[in-house]
Amino acid sequence: MTEHMLSLGLMSGTSLDGVDAALIRTDGHAVSEHGAALTLPYPAWLRSRLRGVLGGNGPVAEVEREVTLFHAEAVDALLRQAGLPASAVAVVGFHGHTILHRPKERRTWQIGDGSLLAERLGLPVVNDFRSADVAAGGQGAPLVPVFHAALAAPLEQPLAILNLGGVANVTWIGEDGRLLAFDTGPGNALIDDWALHHTGQPVDENGALAAAGRADGAALAEFCAHPYFAGPPPKSLDRDDFRQLAHRLTDSLSAEDGAATLTAFTIAAVDMARRHLPAAPRRWLVCGGGRRNPQVMAGLRRALSVPVDAVDAVGWDGDALEAQAFAFLAVRSLKRLPLTWPSTTGAPRPLCGGRLHRPALVRV
Asked: pLDDT by residue (tens digit) across 36-68?
């Protein structure tokens, strides 16, 4: 029996809402314990700073340091909540924050200083999970399917797990354990950006703005005609790949109708993803912040015609899932186990990834 170790995962998603931190106990194959988890919201100033370096612009080095130190605060808060000393943690999985993703150019950029975080925490840190895959010709995303598969082992399959973060991605798990994964299209990012621009609020809370509007059919048809959706998986997106299309709505639609249109686009993108799945899922499980949007969830249920539930319905923590995934991936990286496969990222072969940083001084 292989050793299960306590691992701490950190995730800063494309929604720019904050840092998720979670503890799990794992051997990199299965999860034997789910520990404490929390989200530390970004203060408005840091969210603005992060937004300002998307695309690799602006004072990236300064913001990277600020974001790294904020992640350290999240770790300290989680350990206090769990009542654990730092020495109880074997490794930290540190995704960082994606500011640029261009896999066709073999470029992906997650800011986050692994060495600084390791020294600040006094713990081993694994970061830079995507670069090896992208350098080998893979998409570098999604990375979570192997974790989804570990959690979903006892569930009926075929099964689809949909993550509605800033960008949406799906993991399809077949009856034989086969995996297929890819980004379906926009998740919350376009809706969030629209709400921020038109209302000053960073999200469309409870889908209220979209509920008060009506989707524009012509704009939705134009969005759905984008060549990304016809291309076969594996495939992935940058957060801002559809920004210019969405920006054009500003001159023609009200705040409510624009939100309704972008919400319908997120739903339609998931619906179009079904054409690429090897077999129809018996069920869709939804994680990420989008599962809290009643307009999105109702639209998915209408479009997909099979049960659609938040992952919380099967006992998973939908807020902590991606942070847990990077705790899991950090252990796999330590053990040199694959993180990605041809069917999940388009890598040429199963690939490990991640870069290990050890601190000079160990924290107790």
From this structure: 999 999 999 999 999 999 999 999 999 999 999
Q: Which H helix or E strand runs over 322?
A: helix 321-334
Compute the distance between CA of residue 120 and CA of residue 226 in angstroms, rounded to an integer. 44
* pTM of this prediction exceeds 0.85: yes
Cα angle vertex 291, ends 290, 294, to 5°?
95
Superfamily for the 5-140+319-357 domain: ATPase, nucleotide binding domain (3.30.420.40)
For the chain, how many residues are written?
Answer: 364
Which tokens go with 62? 């300064």
Token pair listed for 330? 């950090």
Q: What share of the chain is helix, strand, coil (3-state, %, to 5)?
A: 45, 20, 35
Give the residue extent of every domain in the chain: 5-140+319-357, 145-314
Are the C-beta atoms of 142 and 163 separated by less than 8 Å?
A: yes
Do the beta carbons of residue 182 and residue 267 sit within 8 Å?
no
Q: pLDDT tens digits, residue range 156-212?
A: 999 999 999 889 999 999 999 999 999 999 999 999 999 999 999 989 999 999 999
